[in-house]
User: Fold these one by one.
Assistant:
Number 1:
Amino acid sequence: MKILLFGAMGQLGTQLQRTLSQHGEIFPFDIHNLNLENTGAVREIIRRVGPEVIVNASAYTFVDQAESEVEKAFMVNGNIPGLFADEATKLNAFLIHYSTDYVFDGSKGALYVERDQTNPLSVYGKSKLAGEEAVRAGKANYLILRTSWVYSRNRSSFVTKVLEWARKQETLRIVSDQVSNPTWARTLADVTAQLLGKGLDSLVEYCGLYHVAGDGYASRLEWAQKILELDPNEQEQKVKELLPALTSDFPTPAQRPLFSALDCSLFRSTFDIALPKWEDALQQAMMEP
Ligand SMILES: NC(=O)c1ccc[n+]([C@@H]2O[C@H](COP(=O)([O-])OP(=O)(O)OC[C@H]3O[C@@H](n4cnc5c(N)ncnc54)[C@H](OP(=O)(O)O)[C@@H]3O)[C@@H](O)[C@H]2O)c1
């Protein structure tokens, strides 16, 4: 099976290169060999490779920067997924795309399910929602996996930042009013491989949008606490106190939802694939980056 992978050097893409290789030949592309804004070249590559599966792990993920780079964010997150859906239809290829909890405004006060009303607060969230809509509007067979708070240790993430801050500062102030599901990029990559392992004929029956994230949820403060606790090189830490802060204490260009944790039960019951507890996945991530 030919698998065309976009965003191959990102947090998720890096892990997908490893986990998807058991299912076929991977054709990896990233900004270094193909800028997705060059849509003509993107179409040409897709036609030249002629994949059975297109996996889109690429995204413009700079949430704050997106507020001032609106066009770019909408191009990569909104338009390109539509182009993938269009090309996938022509080739009868299956499309796997990822989206975000930031399509919600966080006002529900409970776990979000797939059919909940979206209302993104930021340009990033709006552009990702546009991407979801473009894929759904197409005629390709697809899965959209909406996920949350993705981290890895091979690229800058909340986890790498907390570890870095802890080595430089004695006091860390972390927001306690933002809550969601920390999700290890490898978990998402494993889940994607398990999906492909079910065979494309079987996936076609279950096309649609699913929530997929680490099991359970936490505030950023609780997440940071756990990161520090599980740090295998704890002796390098300078930090003496971890204090709660409010989102409003750290004004940022983009507004983020406060409670955007995802309910993943539809995914579990449809595909019978387990999602590890976020704390267990974090423990593993800290042991083997
Ligand atoms: N990170 C999170 O907390 C989070 C949360 C919820 C959902 N998600 C979603 O999960 C998926 C994977 O996210 P991730 O964390 O793995 O993202 P990531 O690490 O930022 O990776 C995205 C990749 O896309 C590439 N890219 C961006 N613009 C491009 C362009 N114009 N042409 C070609 N490549 C381009 C990036 O290249 P560069 O090297 O230039 O960056 C990067 O390698 C995305 O759909 C994201 O929206 C992420």
Number 2:
Amino acid sequence: MEVPFARPLFTEADGAAVAEAVMSGWVSQGPRVRAFEEAFAARVGAKEAVATTNCTTALQLALYVAGVGPGDEVVIPSLSFIATANAVWQNGATPVFADIDPDTYNLDPQSAERAISDRTKAIMPVHQIGLPADMDEFQRIASKHGLLLVEDAACAVGATYKGRPIGSLNSPACFSLHPRKVITTGEGGMITTNDPELAARMRKLRQHAMDLSDLARHNASDIVFEAYPERGWNMRMTDMQAALGLCQLEALDEILAERARQAARYTAAIAELPYLEPPFEPEYAVRTWQSYAVRVDPRSPVNRTELMRRLHRDGVATRRGIMAIHHEPAYADPKALLPHTDAAAREVLLLPLFPGLGDDAQDHVIERLAAHLVAAKAA
Ligand SMILES: Cc1ncc(COP(=O)(O)O)c(C=O)c1O
């Protein structure tokens, strides 16, 4: 049996909605993009949502309007996808890595506070694989040091922190709509904020800072000439993507419920297996189960990488857990002391989990895990 790692959930209605956008003739930055922004903001309890080309550009833009630029530092976790650091670099600023909480794999507030220098402008916690970071603590540290917060919420659409949806807290939150995420528009990003002025500025900056939107020009009763009061980028989402996003958003609750069901099945099975630690479940948060991360005990005779190799031979696709950015040549920092990050990067793997993964396929994954680990324990 071949078990893929992840697969987006698309229906015929999704395809029809995209086709309708094409046939409407308005394929970029049109009414569907606006409708998607409104629906997204409503879903996560934010006043505003601003669509972009992807989460990396969303993070870049949110940091830019927070005033992050050359000479500034932004504290981030090293244990994250490299896009978290690249978004800082795209603003000419320097990412400074702090360690994680070994249970949640999220940025540790104390470690982040220790990484603050007189050049620090912002802290960017990541809601890693859809588990919210400890935002009250980050808000406290940010106000104590006069810093801004931007949330990397790439994997966190539908997650809640102390009962409040991610996206509704008082910092800009940036979401990814990449196919590996809970819902997808192929590529795509979204920034939520409760500040309408900030949202208006971001909508201009994503379109070369043009002071007139396509929608406003279209609806104008006379000719209008646009102006460019500052410099900006092209971070425009298409209406085909937005049409798909509107459909995906409608399926979000169903997708989250199915992901949670599969995660509970893994957790029950893993409780019976040697050398595996299921994901930590904090009481303060509801996560998205963007991925199911298991930790292989360093005392296991079959280590994380060897277990992945054996599962691969069994037809089960897995991925390593979250990368450590400071281990990569692009951001190599041999002096960084991040022991919890180093351990998580070495010991964690992600198991297949997606709507459409049948129980029989999931049982096969569990059975293969058991075969390798129970045999190793007996040997
Ligand atoms: C934590 C994190 N931040 C940022 C990104 C970048 O998202 P995108 O691919 O939409 O640019 C990802 C994507 O995997 C991610 O996992």
